[in-house]
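Tokens in:
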């Protein structure tokens, strides 16, 4: 997808060493359903990584939560200052049922 609201391939964290680096040395913010780790990356754009374990739920639920998180990042990345690597770990337990619930929780955690 083109434009400011796209989610390009280079905006994804895919290498395990990048996940480990951000989770070990980055700042940590917790919310009811998520743990957010973020660290400056010096690349000029934000990158997103999502961590969901199988204990969270069935594959359909995990995929839905991933879509919620990617959509939130896609629509709100222009509001985040700097250039960050952002890793979102989804906790086991009660999860948002609707996109608006996930959006509100993530917005509160980032501000």
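Residues out:
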């Amino acid at each position: 997808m083109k434009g400011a609201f796209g989610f390009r391939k280079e905006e994804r964290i895919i290498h395990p060493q990048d996940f480990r680096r951000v989770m070990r040395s980055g700042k940590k913010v917790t919310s009811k359903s998520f743990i957010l780790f973020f660290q400056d990356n010096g690349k000029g754009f934000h990158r997103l990584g999502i961590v969901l374990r199988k204990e969270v739920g069935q594959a359909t639920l995990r995929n839905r939560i991933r879509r919620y998180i990617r959509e939130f990042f896609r629509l709100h990345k222009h509001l985040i200052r700097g250039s960050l690597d952002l890793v979102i770990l989804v906790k086991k337990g009660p999860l948002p049922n609707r996109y608006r619930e996930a959006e509100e929780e993530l917005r509160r955690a980032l501000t």
